[in-house]
Design a protein that fits this description.
Blueprint: H1 6-10, H2 13-36, H3 42-56, H4 61-73, H5 76-88, H6 95-126
Helix pairs in contact: 2-3, 2-4
Length: about 130
């Protein structure tokens, strides 16, 4: 099997364009949040812009899917610092870590349950019966 040149092995040029487009949406979200002064992260606004563009069909999924998949396939690299931090604190691997894990799991379950209950109550209060 012929060996590809280094620049072809690292990332396809089309992927760079697609990733650049995603970054432009992120920057547009940052700019929009700074301009309006809304208390949301610009990355969330950029994601909302991407959702609107995809939902309206102005940006076909095929135009960004390969670049987004390339980013997702390398997401594990983002978790390496967290793993190294755990290795720096070996007490997190023992009983203390198990206690922390239990608190995180139980706390997350409580947050999800309360959120679901609030959404159900909000639907009951704000959505008319004939619309549901």
């Amino acid at each position: 099997m012929p060996r590809l040149p280094l620049h072809r092995r690292l990332i396809e040029p089309a992927y760079l364009l697609q990733i650049g487009g995603l970054m432009v949406l992120w920057l547009a979200g940052e700019w929009l949040m700074r301009l309006t002064g809304l208390p949301f992260p610009g990355s969330i606004a950029g994601l909302a812009l991407l959702l609107v563009l995809l939902a309206t069909g102005w940006l076909p999924q095929e135009r960004i899917a390969p670049g987004a998949n390339w980013l997702l396939s390398r997401m594990l690299v983002l978790f390496v610092p967290a793993v190294l931090a755990i290795l720096e604190y070996p007490q997190l691997v023992g009983v203390t870590g198990l206690k922390i894990l239990c608190v995180i799991v139980i706390g997350s379950a409580i947050v999800m349950a309360v959120t679901a209950r609030v959404v159900c109550l909000a639907i009951r209060v704000f959505v008319p019966d004939d619309a549901a």
